[in-house]
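Now for today's protein:

——
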Amino acid sequence: MPNIKPLSASAAPLDVRALYEEFGQKMGFPAAPNFILTQGHSATVARGTWSAVLNVLVLGQIPRWTKEMIFVAISRDRGCLYCEAAHIACCRMLGVNSETLDGLVRNIESVTDSKLRDMINFSLKCSRAPRSVTADDYDMLRKHGLGESEIIELVGMSALAVYANIIADATAMEADPAFDELAPQRAAAGTSSSHT
């Protein structure tokens, strides 16, 4: 049972309803998920969260599918079931192949792409103990060809995932049925490309 129930679009003020529509559309969901519906009780928080999600997760130099994998890894590591389920669904929607996604969930070290694996591990380290990140960690990313802008995106993604985990866990969000429904529909439509 959620601690704060989602605020439906029909009960939300017009500005919040518009935010729900934009969130759902730009994230590729058929409707706004519980994550933003729960925050809809505070237009200020919902707008702030959507701005962070849009600018840190959706936009930027690092492909969204890579950031979604980072979101899955951090959410799994932190035990946030809502965010893990949501971002596994996003990975599938964006064409992350099943083998790579299964490896990510089972054991990050099984991810065969060393650049991707190192980006995920760096982000996990940021989310667990940000002061433990060393110059060697940054040098490893630079050796993979990442510039300062991309590295800051990874740090931002780590912070965003932790922020989202706190909101989802503190409010006891329930997973959206659409998470299970989205991936098969996309695959059936032939939109499943193969990342990594």
